[in-house]
Design a protein that fits this description.
Oligomer: single chain
Strand content: 15-25%
Strand order of the largest sheet: 13-25-24-23-14-21-22
Number of helices: 24
Shape: elongated
Radius of gyration: 33 Å
Distance between the termini: 40 Å
Length: 672
């Protein structure tokens, strides 16, 4: 696995490989491609990757700089010494100085030369190293020793500052989601045993003390306390929990000791998934990042060709002044380095993903963070998205209907099924041949008879006619035995407090629609509470998908859902958003996850997306405008090489600092 954030590659091996030999060969291959990547056997992985000291990374550069300093001062001291001893100062002293300048230059440029050699071996002939080497080599050939060497020194220092700025930025972003759990207190045979979170099994009792993070998702089985959920959701308000409440890994206990029964292993918990998403989010790049990567590959050869054309123009029309054209071409190459774009654009999107994660919004890649800013159509599921999803039985035909329905629904994990089984206090039947169709209903066998429980479409599949008059507003579950309809159960659900405000904002800016499998009356009631939003009711999963394809425009479309029956639509949408309480399948196929089920966070994610894209575009425009201006001046001969370094290193540093505004500027993250 490769951690783009820390430039760390972790390797595991099959039994038939010699670990030491294979790891050595892998390191050799990786370092040919990128010598900044650290390679470790997975069990030897470091806790933190430390930055390489300047002296170690730039040892040869420092040696070259010392040699140049000696040459520079010695060149001026020699005449003074000659005058003291009444000796004649001739051009003989200048020749050793030139040789020392060249030796010092080779040391200074050594890092770039090594990088260029590696690039050539992998057919990467044109990059920023190419531009700097050609430019400074041309300046040295023209006798512009001090100027050429000053450029290399400034470039090396600037390159180091860039890497430090990027490393610091990554560190800042990583700290936004620094929620790792180092240990867990497991109760075994009445004693507390400290274990690695990876050793926690489902069903283990985990003791969480004051100030500790909950290591895995689970249910509180002892005690009551308050949790700090800000690391996962960005919500500063404490959350009270009691016995029976579900808790997520990563939340911090700020009250009394509680015991949590593990519902998931660590690798499947919310915490582990968040960390994995953040560390691997850069694997799916945005369109702008991909454009910059392609642009840099095409841009550099074009710049080299333009520099050659400038020299050719001088050779044809003004051969007497050819040196000035070569010098202008060298300056042209220095200015042209695309560092500012290559560094700042990926950093901008990485910062956006980190900021979103700190606020409880998980993006599975910068491609989705970018795409969110282009969305024009939003489709919303009702149950669990707009409503709480905490169903309760409002009405039912009789106790026998409730008992038979509960006998079936005990085999289902659907929220409506749980509401029915919780309502039933009578003894249920043991059924066989259970078959559940997501979005429809469930059936099973009882002593040779077949029981059915589901929506009207489910019963119609088996030619069972439902005859009911006007029922209360809610979600209906119809019950039948063999081919005979027995009765109904009406289940209610409440609209989330935040849904109304958020959806009304969406309707002002986007084409917004509700798609639900619920009945017409229930869907209409919710739509009216949301201000008369457009809706489509009594839709089966395949009908939802068909309707969504009909209403989507040529622009990008977004769907928000949380159930198993939403998975096909989530997979089909340009951007799929699921709530944190969604089914594992829904989360698996989603592109964006809202951890705490607050729909307002979706609105916040739009603002983060637009701000991130705006800063990326600012960096592109600023970088290109400065470079075009400086390139024009260099073509006309009104530019010096030492000043041209600002158009490279200076602009890159400014763009990196601008990218960090995604982290530190909070104005656009506040709720409306």
């Amino acid at each position: 696995s490769f951690n783009q954030t820390n430039h760390v590659l972790l390797v595991d091996f099959k039994d038939d490989y010699l670990k030491e030999k294979a790891l050595r060969e892998i390191k050799a291959i990786v370092h040919l491609l990128d010598d900044t990547v650290s390679v470790y056997y997975i069990e030897d992985a470091p806790v933190d990757s430390k930055h390489t000291p300047f002296i170690k990374a730039y040892g040869l550069v420092l040696l070259g700089g010392a040699l140049i300093l000696f040459t520079f001062t010695g060149h001026r001291i020699f005449p003074f010494i000659n005058q003291i001893f009444d000796t004649e100062y001739t051009s003989l002293e200048r020749q050793p100085s030139a040789i020392l300048y060249w030796i010092g230059y080779v040391f200074l440029i050594s890092r770039l030369l090594i990088g260029q050699i590696k690039g050539i071996r992998h057919f990467n002939l044109f990059n920023e190293n190419t531009l700097m080497i050609i430019a400074t080599l041309a300046a040295m050939a023209l006798g512009k020793y001090e100027e050429s060497i000053a450029v290399v020194i400034l470039y090396s220092v600037g390159e180091y500052l860039q890497h430090r700025a990027v490393d610091r930025s990554r560190s800042e972003i990583s700290s936004l989601v620094d929620i790792k759990v180092e240990y867990a207190n497991i109760r075994e045979n009445g004693e507390i045993v400290i274990k690695d979170p990876l050793e926690i099994n489902v069903g283990d009792e985990v003791v969480v003390k004051n100030g500790e993070k909950i290591p895995v998702d689970g249910i509180v089985c002892e005690g009551s306390t308050s949790l700090d959920t800000s690391h996962l959701t960005g919500e500063s308000k404490l959350k009270g929990v009691d016995v029976g409440d579900a808790v997520l890994s990563g939340n911090i206990n700020v009250g009394t000791v509680i015991t949590v029964r593990a519902e998931k292993e660590y690798t499947d918990s919310t915490l582990a998934k968040i960390i994995d998403l953040i560390e691997n989010s850069s694997n799916k790049k945005s369109k702008i990042e991909l454009f910059i990567t392609k642009f840099a590959r095409i841009y550099t050869p074009i710049v080299v060709c333009l520099a050659l054309l400038l020299i050719a123009y001088g050779a044809i029309f003004n051969m007497a002044d050819i040196k000035s054209y070569i010098y202008s071409a060298a300056v042209f190459l220095v200015i042209s380095c695309p560092c500012s774009l290559v560094l700042s654009i990926p950093l901008t999107y990485y910062a956006g993903i980190g900021k979103a994660a700190r606020n409880g919004i998980l993006f599975k890649g910068s491609t989705y963070l970018h795409a969110l800013s282009e969305v024009e159509t939003i489709a919303l599921d009702k149950t669990g998205t707009l409503t709480h999803g905490d169903f309760f039985v409002q009405d039912y035909t009789n106790d026998d209907v409730l008992r038979l329905a509960a006998s079936l629904e005990q085999y289902s994990s659907h929220p409506i099924a749980k509401a029915i089984t919780n309502k039933n206090k009578m003894e249920t039947e043991e059924l066989t041949d259970i078959e559940e169709i997501p979005g429809y209903g469930i059936k099973g066998s009882l002593n040779g008879d077949t029981l059915y429980a589901g929506n009207s479409s489910f019963l119609e599949r088996y030619d069972i006619e439902v005859n009911e008059g006007k029922l209360p507003v809610g979600t209906y579950t119809y019950v039948a035995k063999n081919k005979h309809y027995l009765g109904y159960i009406v289940v209610g659900d409440e609209l989330k407090e935040t849904s109304m405000e958020t959806v009304r904002h969406f309707t002002r800016n986007y084409d917004t629609v509700v798609l639900t499998g619920d009945n017409e009356a229930s869907a209409h009631d919710i739509a009216m509470q949301l201000g008369g939003i457009e809706y489509y009711a009594e839709m089966l999963p395949e009908e939802k998908l068909q309707k969504f394809n009909e209403i989507r425009t040529n622009s990008l479309s977004l769907y928000v859902g949380d159930g198993i029956n939403d998975a096909p639509l989530l997979k089909n949408a340009d951007i799929a958003v699921s709530m944190g309480s969604a089914s594992d399948l829904a989360i698996e196929v989603s592109d964006v996850i809202i951890i705490n089920d607050d729909l307002r966070l979706l609105e916040k994610s739009f603002r983060i997306s637009k701000k991130t894209r705006r800063i990326a575009i600012q960096n592109i425009i600023f970088s290109l405008v400065v470079k075009v201006a400086f390139l024009t001046l260099s073509t006309l001969g009104y530019m010096w090489m030492w000043l041209a370094i600002f158009a490279d290193v200076g602009v890159a540093l400014l763009c990196v600092l601008n990218a960090l505004r995604v982290i530190y500027q909070n104005k656009y993250l506040t709720h409306r």
